[in-house]
């Protein structure tokens, strides 16, 4: 098996017109069929390398890749998952916790189709499937929590449409 290394450095980093670093990420999720409605969807959270709570895979969008390629790369590097990237949840401006800078984070849902046994950052990150409620409770970044709420609403609306009989 070929092991990919996580990208390092900022030589190819994209920036917005206002100078904010462009960061892309995803909320990996899966359905657990046969579960109660509030437990039928699980999301994959990862630990921060610094141990600052739970978060979703995210990282810099680079100039040599499309936005969806960047989302896929971050999901594979940080969480070891692959899947189908769905319609954008939104974009948020936030202040870096490490640097004195503002970033623009763009989040997408990732319907997970494969969970890898080995991935580039498995030595520095833990991953864990949790309910949406557990993820909301453990997420310390307001913009990520808002993205999760948007995903929850979207999935709830699509589940309601597919399970409600037509009249």
Task: Give the arrangement of secondary structure elements.
Blueprint: E1 21-31, E2 41-47, E3 54-55, E4 58-60, H1 67-79, E5 81-85, E6 90-95, E7 102-115, E8 127-131, H2 132-138, H3 142-163
Parallel strand pairs: 1-7
Antiparallel strand pairs: 1-2, 1-4, 2-3, 2-8, 5-7, 6-7
Q: How many strands, which pairing sense, and closed or not: the largest β-sheet?
A: 8 strands, mixed
Give the % helix: 25-40%
Number of strands: 8
Task: Give the averaged pLDDT, no decimals.
Answer: 87
Notes on the protein architecture:
This protein is an alpha+beta fold and 167 residues long. It is built from 3 helices and 8 strands.
Features:
3 helices, 167 residues
Short description:
The chain contains three helices and eight strands, in the order ββββαββββαα. The chain is an alpha+beta fold. The C terminus is likely disordered.
């Amino acid at each position: 098996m070929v092991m990919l290394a996580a990208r390092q450095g900022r030589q190819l980093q994209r920036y917005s017109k206002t100078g904010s670093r462009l960061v892309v990420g995803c909320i990996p999720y899966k359905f657990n069929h046969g579960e109660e409605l509030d437990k039928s969807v699980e999301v994959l959270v990862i630990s921060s390398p610094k141990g600052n709570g739970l978060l979703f895979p995210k990282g810099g969008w680079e100039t040599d890749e499309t936005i969806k390629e960047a989302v896929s790369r971050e999901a594979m590097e940080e969480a070891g998952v692959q899947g189908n990237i769905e319609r954008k949840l939104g974009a948020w401006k936030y202040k870096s916790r490490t640097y004195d800078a503002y970033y623009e984070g763009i989040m997408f849902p990732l319907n997970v189709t494969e969970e890898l046994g080995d991935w580039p950052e498995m030595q520095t990150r833990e991953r864990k499937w949790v309910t949406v409620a557990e993820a909301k409770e453990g997420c310390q970044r307001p913009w990520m929590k808002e993205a999760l709420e948007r995903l929850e609403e979207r999935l709830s609306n699509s589940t309601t449409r597919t399970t409600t009989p037509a009249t």
